Amino acid sequence: MVEPLAPLGHGEIDTLILQALVRKLVERDVLSPEDVRALLFDAATRLNIDGSEQTPEAAHNIVEEDLAPAFLGSDYFVGAAKSR
């Protein structure tokens, strides 16, 4: 059995590490921006706000307006492709 991790006392550090990891994986072409958006969409549909999962439309808005910019940076905001 896997034991739950003890909180570090700094809730934002987990988010910052995860965002940096995702950006590094995109930078190294391990994940594409589309892969990241698909993962974020899957997570967003499972968000339990007001007692139920999100509709696909609401999840898409959450991804494009909040999550994608945070995880991909402004170079990939609202579907913009990063020029290489």
Number of strands: 0
Helix content, binned percent: 55-70%
Q: Overall mean pLDDT score?
A: 83
Helical/strand content category: mainly alpha
Low-confidence segments, given as residue ranges, are 78-84
From the spread of the alpha carbons, the general shape counts as globular
Radius of gyration: 14 Å
Describe this entry's structure for a reader.
Residues 78-84 have low confidence and may be disordered. Helix content is 56%, strand content 0%. The protein has 3 helices and no strands. It has a domain at 32-79. The N and C termini lie far apart (44 Å). The protein has 84 residues and is an all-alpha fold. Helix 2 crosses helix 3. It has helices at 11-27, 33-45, 56-72.
Summarize, please.
This protein has 84 residues and is mainly alpha-helical. It has helices at 11-27, 33-45, 56-72.
Question: How do the strands and helices of this protein lay out in sequence?
Answer:
Elements: H1 11-27, H2 33-45, H3 56-72
Q: What keywords describe this structure?
A:
mainly alpha
